[in-house]
Amino acid sequence: MTTLNLLSIFIPELIQQHKDYLHKQNQEIRVTGENRRIWRFPLGESRINATIVASLGEQEQAGGALRSRCTEGGEFWRQAEGHLEEIPLDRLLGKHCEETRLSGTTLIVGPCGFGKSTVIQKIIHDWAAGQLYQEINVIFPFKVQQLNSIDGQTCLNDLVVDFFPHFTNWLQFLWKEPEKILFIFDDLHLLQKTIDLSQPPSGNDDESQSLGPEEFCEISHIVRCLINGQLLTGCSVLGASSPWKLQSLGNAGSHRAVDILGLGADSMKQYFRQHAAAGQPASDVLDYIEEDEALRTMYHNPRFCSVLCSMLKEGSPTPAATTRTMILLTYLTCLLNKCCYEDIIAHHMLLKLGSLAYWGICTKTVVFERANSSIMMEIRGNDGVSYVFIHSILKDFVAALFQSQNTPADQVMKMLTEWYNCADDRFKFILRFFIGLLSANTAKRTWLYQREQHSQSASSVSDWLREKLNSCIQNLESERIQKGLLEILYCLLEFGDAALVADVLARMKTIRFTKCPLKPSDRMALSKALMTVQEIEELDLDACGIGDEGIHQLDQVLHKCTVLSLKSNNLTDGCVETLISALHENAVLSKLDISNDDPHSDHANWLTDKSIPALPQFIHSNSLMKEIKSVCS
Asked: Averaging pLDDT over each range in 27-41, 183-197, 256-270, 393-407, which range is the top one?
């Protein structure tokens, strides 16, 4: 049998063996959940399409409307406006897209957690299953974390055989058709030695010369030559990078770059409908995210959504049953785990990043001159390259982490008071996360290294919370005190000491928020806090704008009230059924007020004849009811 005949038999068998191997390796999505538990989800059932569009540069050239935006709050994201065309996976690779004539290199750019690795996994899986890019004979996927483990020099032949030993003795035949080979490099931003693609190689540069697959050099040079077409000329390369090293991974003219925007609103809803824990309605999770001031900006981050779902599957009955501190700590743990950092290195990186973040918050700095983390991204302006945090809430969190690890125990109460009394809201989330990180519950469930003074600091936090709550009890008439009480409730929930919450709130005769408009997240916090007490003597929520939605959010605590006042709250017929249902369980209610101070105001309750009859029926069924005031009273 001739060599040609042998190749025609064994090469297809070898490629099929390779496909079977990759197909098996890419059937599941792995997510690091709480306590570092690894959750596995089937790729086919778990993956929701993340939006991929042409890069900012290409859109500008085409007159499109993709733009970058940096808000005062530090949020930075790319927003598709109008009707930007999404790029499907079968048109992602420039060389294999009929509409382009670009080189064989495509770079997927997007923040960590936005779905780059899942897109790559989907491409590999579908190619191996015979569903995508069948004009490609072989795909060689590499994670940069694996490449970083290689010491010294190597060559392309050895690199491939080290990871895919079934190709031993066969590479020379594969290399004869480089146009049918695809190399994939995930997480290029993590490559230990930076590769600069922003400038074309010069003729006098040794690195500009073509490289053979048997020639030894640094692994970064192999990656660079493959991307730039100086090694196996004609092959295709797909890379993925977080946007904080785009200066070195810049979109050279011969490369195609695409932006991944994460989940759109519809995709996010579809994701939670598919992954809600057993007995957990997807609507509850969606409401939680959309109404939570701290977390709602992260809904488009697929990794965050998967972490939240994994935490729900681990036993939290609802999203509100866990703290924002634990959610974000678990999310960051998941990102760091993907980077394969040792704990001590990851801990040091977070503290260094937290120091930068805290300085930025103190000085009201949003844009930074340097970056040391993949939770930041670069922006380019007339003055060069600068960096911002992808999510401002992560900036607050790592800043709080830095302070929780570096504030002496005897300075904790002073620090908390300074943040609490700050005239603006800069330290609002730092205050909450700092308290959450020092709680006993977080200390038991975290891999972070705890200081010897942790218990003393936690004790100081407990004393400070009790002191602030007691001061609020004295006078709840002013707007400042009511807002202060609300903030303390948030802090108490992050601290996670239910006994402390119940003890202090039980001594409050009246809980009043009449001069403090309550946002959806505020109502969630109030409801969760009041669930820790047995009875509420008086709950006065006049004119705080809770509306029908607020009645639904508070329905779990309304049955505890002896006196309940809901005047001028934009209530309509739509909430009466929920209100009456909640109050039917109330064995102590003696007074209910749903009237209006001014029936012509914008906050007036609007109850019609449709719902008014239900109120007398409720009175007759409640023997303790002494007084009810409605809009018709």
From this structure: 393-407
- 3-state SS class at 561: strand
Could you tell me which of 553, 551, 544, 549 has the C-alpha nearest to residue 580? 551
Q: What's the token pair of residue 410? A: 């005897």
- Distance of alpha carbon 541 from alpha carbon 594, whole angstroms: 10
Q: In the predicted model, what is the mean pLDDT of residues 390-406?
A: 93
What is the separation, in whole angstroms, between the first and last Cα of the chain? Answer: 102
Percent of the chain with pLDDT over 90: 37
CB atoms within 10 A of CB 128: 21
Residue 107 tokens, joined: 């770079």
Q: Which two tokens stand for residue 125?
A: 């899986």
When pLDDT is averaged across residues 211-223 and rounded to a whole number, the result is 93
Burial 538-550 (b: 16+ CB within 10 A, else e): ebbbbbbbbbbeb
For residue 426 the two structure tokens come to: 């800069």
Question: Each residue of 593-608: b (16+ CB within 10 Å) or e?
Answer: bbbbeeeeeebbbebe
Residue 330's H or E segment, with its range, is helix 324-338
pTM: 0.85
- CA–CA dist 389, 368 (Å, integer): 9
Tokens of 427: 């330290």
C-alpha to C-alpha distances, 422 to 404, 409, 427, 484, nearest whole angstrom? 18, 21, 7, 11
3-state secondary structure 11-22: HHHHHHHHHHHH
Q: What is the pLDDT of residue 77?
A: 45
Q: Is the separation of the CB atoms in 348 and 366 below 8 Å?
A: no
Two tokens, residue 99: 């509409």
**Percentage of the residues of the chain whose pLDDT score is greater than 70:** 80
Helix (H, G, I), strand (E, B) or coil at 105: strand
What is the residue whose two structure tokens read 């109460």? Answer: 413
Contact 331, 303 (CB under 8 A): yes
d(CA 289, CA 215): 53
Which residue in this structure is represented by tokens 């000491």? Answer: 497
Residues 6+ apart with CB under 8 A from 516: 479, 482, 483, 486, 544
User: Do the Cβ atoms of 177 and 137 come closer than 8 Å?
Assistant: yes
Burial of residue 374 (CB within 10 Å: 0-12, 13-18, 19+) is buried
What does the alpha-carbon distance between residue 271 and residue 163 come to, in Å, rounded to a whole number? 33
Question: Tokens 């705080």 correspond to what residue?
Answer: 544
Residue 291, number of CB atoms within 10 A of its CB: 18
**What letter does residue 45 receive in the DSSP assignment?**
H
Give the closest residue to 541 by CA, choosing from 485, 491, 620: 485
Domains of the chain: 47-260 (3.40.50.300), 534-633 (3.80.10.10)
Each residue's pLDDT tens digit, 66-106: 334 344 333 444 444 444 678 888 889 865 555 444 458 89
